[in-house]
Amino acid sequence: xxxxxxxxxxxxxxxxxxxxxxxxxxxxxxxxxxxxxxxxxxxxxxxxxxxxxxxxxxxxxxxxxxxxxxxxxxxxxxxxxxxxxxxxxxxxxxxxxxxxxxxxxxxxxxxxxxxxxxxxxxxxxxxxxxxxxxxxxxxxxxxxxxxxxxxxxxxxxxxxxxxxxxxxxxxxxxxxxxxxxxxxxxxxxxxxxxxxxxxxxxxxxxxxxxxxxxxxxxxxxxxxxxxxxxxxxxxxxxxxxxxxxxxxxxxxxxxxxxxxxxxxxxxxxxxxxxxxxxxxxxxxxxxxxxxxxxxxxxxxxxxxxxxxxxxxxxxxxxxxxxxxxxxxxxxxxxxxxxxxxxxxxxxxxxxxxxxxxxxxxxxxxxxxxxxxxxxxxxxxxxxxxxxxxxxxxxxxxxxxxxxxxxxxxxxxxxxxxxxxxxxxxxxxxxxxxxxxxxxxxxxxxxxxxxxxxxxxxxxxxxxxxxxxxxxxxxxxxxxxxxxxxxxxxxxxxxxxxxxxxxxxxxxxxxxxxxxxxxxxxxxxxxxxxxxxxxxxxxxxxxxxxxxxxxxxxxxxxxxxxxxxxxxxxxxxxxxxxxxxxxxxxxxxxxxxxxxxxxxxxxxxxxxxxxxxxxxxxxxxxxxxxxxxxxxxxxxxxxxxxxxxxxxxxxxxxxxxxxxxxxxxxxxxxxxxxxxxxxxx
Amino acid sequence: xxxxxxxxxxxxxxxxxxxxxxxxxxxxxxxxxxxxxxxxxxxxxxxxxxxxxxxxxxxxxxxxxxxxxxxxxxxxxxxxxxxxxxxxxxxxxxxxxxxx
Amino acid sequence: xxxxxxxxxxxxxxxxxxxxxxxxxxxxxxxxxxxxxxxxxxxxxxxxxxxxxxxxxxxxxxxxxxxxxxxxxxxxxxxxxxxxxxxxxxxxxxxxxxxxxxxxxxxxxxxxxxxxxxxxxxxxxxxxxxxxxxxxxxxxxxxxxxxxxxxxxxxxxxxxxxxxxxxxxxxxxxxxxxxxxxxxxxxxxxxxxxxxxxxxxxxxxxxxxxxxxxxxxxxxxxxxxxxxxxxxxxxxxxxxxxxxxxxxxxxxxxxxxxxxxxxxxxxxxxxxxxxxxxxxxxxxxxxxxxxxxxxxxxxxxxxxxxxxxxxxxxxxxxxxxxxxxxxxxxxxxxxxxxxxxxxxxxxxxxxxxxxxxxxxxxxxxxxxxxxxxxxxxxxxxxxxxxxxxxxxxxxxxxxxxxxxxxxxxxxxxxxxxxxxxxxxxxxxxxxxxxxxxxxxxxxxxxxxxxxxxxxxxxxxxxxxxxxxxxxxxxxxxxxxxxxxxxxxxxxxxxxxxxxxxxxxxxx
Amino acid sequence: xxxxxxxxxxxxxxxxxxxxxxxxxxxxxxxxxxxxxxxxxxxxxxxxxxxxxxxxxxxxxxxxxxxxxxxxxxxxxxxxxxxxxxxxxxxxxxxxxxxxxxxxxxxxxxxxxxxxxxxxxxxxxxxxxxxxxxxxxxxxxxxxxxxxxxxxxxxxxxxxxxxxxxxxxxxxxxxxxxxxxxxxxxxxxxxxxxxxxxxxxxxxxxxxxxxxxxxxxxxxxxxxxxxxxxxxxxxxxxxxxxxxxxxxxxxxxxxxxxxxxxxxxxxxxxxxxxxxxxxxxxxxxxxxxxxxxxxxxxxxxxxxxxxxxxxxxxxxxxxxxxxxxxxxxxxxxxxxxxxxxxxxxxxxxxxxxxxxxxxxxxxxxxxxxxxxxxxxxxxxxxxxxxxxxxxxxxxxxxxxxxxxxxxxxxxxxxxxxxxxxxxxxxxxxxxxxxxxxxxxxxxxxxxxxxxxxxxxxxxxxxxxxxxxxxxxxxxxxxxxxxxxxxxxxxxxxxxxxxxxxxxxxxxxxxxxxx
Lengths: 680, 100, 507, 514
Description:
Chain A is mainly alpha-helical. In chain A, 70% of the residues lie in helices and 3% in strands. Chain A starts with 7 loop residues before the first helix and ends with a helix. Chain C contains 21 helices and four strands.
């Protein structure tokens, strides 16, 4: 029988093959290799769906783990095995579908965005997309931390290549460099974490009886013989440190504070790439990683609390910056940062399902919004300034409708998909936060971000589509074909309906089983299930759900609060910007405006650090040339000086020679005679 | 019989006189003569101790030395001659084209 | 006999190339250099790993012929390979061939002498990696310097004379220090030959006696320090690195390739063979200072690279940085640390070779290496620039390329080291190098390769010729192959490294 | 044993004892023959004839010497040293070893001089002086009495003075000759006075008797006289070997003399000084190291060795004139060879090793240093100039000779690639085993410095661009070329062939201490 799991490597390899085809044969192919990419990603999508369904099968495996390739093996009694393998469980299967789906749609959209716009260098573009997809898929199926890290880095490389696609301009290469460098800074900590995991556990497997989360649990439970902690730390303390180190990579890739600065700059890349980065690949990788090794974090509550706090803070912090942006993609960029903050909050709050859920819904509506923005940009002849737009809804109805669906989802308006997932996050954060102040802080910040999100989202919608056209191009927008509308429609539908797969509040209220996603995620193998994580959290993390009144009232309070705030934000935006001639209201913010425009001076701060580093480097260079090399040259100078002195002995006067000769002999005679006692 | 120490003192004195000449005289010929003195100081020793030890080795050697001294002077004079032709002087301190 | 055949053939090839007319020298030299490549691959195919040559393991292709007895100690022709030296032998032959091809464009005069010296150097390098008698090894070790001196001095840049003399005298003085240190050890040991296995095993059996009133432990310490200083110059590590940037900047491209690719590895190879195999206790005693040197080399070297404006200087200083990792791996004294360090020698050899070739190709086209003189080169030479970017990422430690494998093994090995106190701290500090390396390489790439095309020349810059790009592509393939399948070397390296670790008193 | 060796050994053992002096006799007769030819056929341009005759003489002498060495004449294996003329002459391994050095150097210098002397008057005198000087040196090697030592030393010196001043219209040559002669005369007076004092103390001039006298009666009561005598004799040797502070003549003499003569003096004459010093001190004065109060001449040589290594190498480092640099370098090398005396100890087990290493070094030094000076001779022949700048880019005109020069320079510096490294190493290593690690240390440090100035020459000829003065080079002198190449080949081959040289030398030296 042909099992779906046999084809898991093919899911990764198909886009990789399309990368090779586009790179080496792209210029000889129609559409610059796009068709190969579409075929490959679509093929991967089909395989992914097959794999995901196989997991549901009654008799089939619930989890599939297989070592495919041994990269390096140690020696000795318990050698380290550095391997590549696949781990398919509901989480990764879900992620595979998300990634391949978005990738396929992005490929199709690119036909409209890149090919039809007459871009050059298309083989390079499609090669980049293929490799990007392949790397992300490799990361998703990784069955150990090292493999995950390796594909994580490859994702970083691809983002560099694609963000810097328009390398002949000044902006994109700079943004690409920044993206790679900032995430590299996070990956530095991640790599320490990987190394520490190996040093501590001797393995980096995610799943199985010998996996490091299992060993960590055993160590925390008291069996410290299975791990080597460092500096004589208690296992819990050490695991917290390791967890935070790995978190460094997550913070970098998922653009969490303070390493979020690369993401807005990354808008310099082509818009379909932004969609891919934000919805399915690079940024999602960070959150996915935490979910993937959730069993490990579950035993270190301190790390979780920090994750939650960072997430909540980022959600609020990024949302405030999104309020004042002029470019449509900038707004979306900050919204991405903010939304991933929610996911981190969810993970920190112990609600693994909520995070995954939001990851999924966000993937759909954010891809939709970016592709929609891309369509607007095509229409606007690559002018991204919202103040030059206005009134586009009549000229491009499909775009408007889908964009609106996505916006409603983003703002968390009932019953769009974003509402369900965001609401679940806030609810979980709330109930667990009742017993944990740090978590509660995260919840408060997450809640505060809700109206702001709704506000900036609809500010964007109104400015772009409503009112009167504010420029010539907005009056006569550029047209586009099916390859743009198609993906928008698919995603538009998903943005509306995706939330229905996990209507936990409805279930709680009505008792009907509507938590399909929760059940699916709970169906994985041992140690990788939702309920398993909850047990760990309860046992080692002291996570205990609190209630206000009854469970139902708690639920209603939480949901009502978030929905109410979202609607408030929406209404404010409606009031201010849904007018024929909207004006900027930023002046009302006073001093705060400048701070927000300048992103809290975070970029300046990082540039300052970069410049200081360069100054230090310059000083080091001076030191090296002057002092260290100076000593080297000094030694030779001193020797040569000695040589010149020595030469002067030879005066050229033969009588001097005779005298020196006599003197030398006399000195020798006297020294030896007196010391040797010859004359006694 | 004269004690051997006296011969040693005499020869040492002659040697030192020769050495003094070598160190102070600039004229090449004086230099040569001074060296002759030093050689003869050695001869004094050789002959005196030949007597002291009662063998002929020293005396024979002294004859060899006298012959060699003559040969040395011969070649020395030759060199001083070409020195005079090239530098127009027989002073040993004038030829200093090479130094350091 | 295959080793003798390999070395003798390479010497003969060098002589032959000296006699070939300049016009054909490059091609002939390349053709001849393929024979050692095939020979080394043949050796690899026959090789069966069996422990470390020095600690009593099997020695493949072994030959011992007595030569001369000096001061009671026998000098021999004693050659052989084990899992540590074979990868380096393959690296040497492989890189020499590619370096010869990369010389076709830049070397325009006295070609036959140039290629002859390259092959002469190759022969001696092979000798360095395969000699197992200290004296023989030392002769090859020093003989490498002579062709290098000429290659830098004759075909180098404007300050080539200063650079050549500095390189030559500096490294020779270092060799002398090392030589004296080792001799002190040998004389104290009362061994009968200079065979490295015999010396190693005698040391392991505590045969060292008091020598000139110096107690054995003190003597070992002195020897360790002298050896370390001697090899540190060659590696080079901070603060004895200053000859390297000068030498690299002045050397022509193929010579830089050899210098960074193979010559620096002599230092780390020797550190492994001598300091860490023979004197593990002293290494343990000095672990912290050595680790500090390693970390400082990594960070300081990277900072210096950041401050440079000359592309070649950037790559040169980054070698200092990369070699710091190797030292860290060695001092970690774990299987992955030492094995990874050995692997990194090969990996860095390939990657730095690729980087120098890329910079050379750019220089061929632009006649400048100053970062601020150019921008947007990707527009004019897409293939060469593409490979350069790939090489730069390999240098930054991109996974599935050789550099990552080497660095990861080192980090993984050193983090949990019990041999080195505070190992996690040192490892974490050294690892910061991967951020700085990304910083300066990306910055340099952004300025030179991207943006609007700008270069003041009176001619049109066009894509690089095939024979410039081909060796780069081959190197890139090798880097990726090693990154994907590091086990091809790692298994034999581990096999040879394990006895060393066992020798370290079970540490 | 090799059958041919057996037969030649058998043949040699049937010869009468006086034939042991064969090399000396052949050399002396060749000199006389040259004078005779010149007297009978006083042709102005018979340069080639004289060169062939004298080269033949030197090579025959070399051949005989090597034959004797191989056959074992005067060596342990064949009945020990052969003594002649009431023990005033002794032929043993050491004598033959050094005679081989002298005759090889002489042969090389003669072949090279053929080109150098083209167009010179009085070439017969040149060759005969050279042959007589070589004869004197060969005699020094076999001297076993202070009388023969002094006479042969003078016999080697007097022709040398004339050879240095051979270019009698050249101010440099004349000045060099004058300085060489004056210092030489002074030194020989000091030397002779020392001999007379030893005679005063022991009543004998035969080395073996002096040794016996000291061993029996010690020096109690006349240590002062004996000590002064020993140090003065040491001074005489120091002059001959150009050791500090008796070296002052050397830079000028080597610089001013015709380059082939410089080659001859700095290689052969220096070696001659060493052979006689080795024999006198090892045979006659060994007991003085043990008597009370001690006359520690080994320490005195150690002081001289250190001074010589330091002064020679440091002064060489900053020279502008290549020939003068080489002159100083040859002083430095005298310092290394002095270790062969300085590291001797009374009854020390390593004495043979130490002295043997010094002998091996002098052999290799003979080739590499002669070759280097002959390269200078070739440059002088071309008239290119004398400074490092003048040498710039020579390799473009004469690549093969420049390869040879690079070999000489690196070998002199002690780079392991060539013979010079092994001999230096053997010297230092044996000094260390004899307990004199500090001598080896000074040697090692100064030889590190020497690399700097030797590589300057290589840099000049190979790396620098020619600055336009090389157009004067028209021809390639065959004889000079051949001599240089031969010396280079010998230098290279003495790396693999070093065991032969070292073992022979150590056997010869050990025989002295037996």
